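Sample intake sheet
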Amino acid sequence: MRTAIITGASSGMGLQFLMQMDAHLQVDEVIVVARREDRLKELQNYTKAKVVPLPLDLTDPSAVPALKEFLKKRDPDVRLLVNAAGFGKFEPFAEGDPDVHRRMVDLNCRALQDVTYAVLSYMSDGSKIVQFGSMSAFQPVPYIGLYGATKAFVLSFTRALNAELRGTGIRALCLCPYWVKTDFFDVAGGSEYVHNFPVMYQPDFIVRKCYETIEKHPKKDVCVPGFLAKGQRFLVKILPHGMIMRIWLRQQGLMPEKINEKKETAGTADIQKEQ
């Protein structure tokens, strides 16, 4: 049975891939993976293909073995895998929660490569893998640095995997969007640190461009949708990363003197509360 698999399918970019699927890919079923089963069951309205809910928390060590067992029983012909599950946090690394840090790396990196490994044996000539990277994959980004590091892993892993898959007819593509208007920001929080977003793309545009890249540019292993995003990718290739980080910090008002000012203001506010 011709099958697509989408992780992080219940919202955001994963949901958008499902919503646009009928226009770009004909499959019999879509296995949708996310934590909440109730949300997954609502997804049938977005595609003609049969939606098969698979509620899993991919940060749970038992999740990937459960996925493997599920696939073994169905023996699907997987035409598309979209690894859209992931999250980030806007915060100073030293002030973050180590457990949240571990879950971020676990979901963005370990789960992505584990799911890819589990699904690959069900793919064949013409199958596609879309891994979710980010513009932050191309440069260090203070105050969302760990997230950016996970996306650098995704970018490197995907490009290398695509090279290894030459001759099989299977293709791996890393989607690296600029800021996208999704519920990512509800989880990321930290608006006191990161709040200046020059452009916010719509998720339907990003996903449409990704599908078009798959269809029209079969040799590409990276998709960077949008003029501004392409321009930034070019700049980070030619400018020192130290300069890029200083520009970013200035843009967000995060130069050292501003940080000290924020801390002093917060300290004064706490004293006033106590009084």
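Comment: Strands lie at 2-7, 29-34, 50-55, 77-83, 123-132, 171-175, 222-223. Residues 240-275 form one domain.
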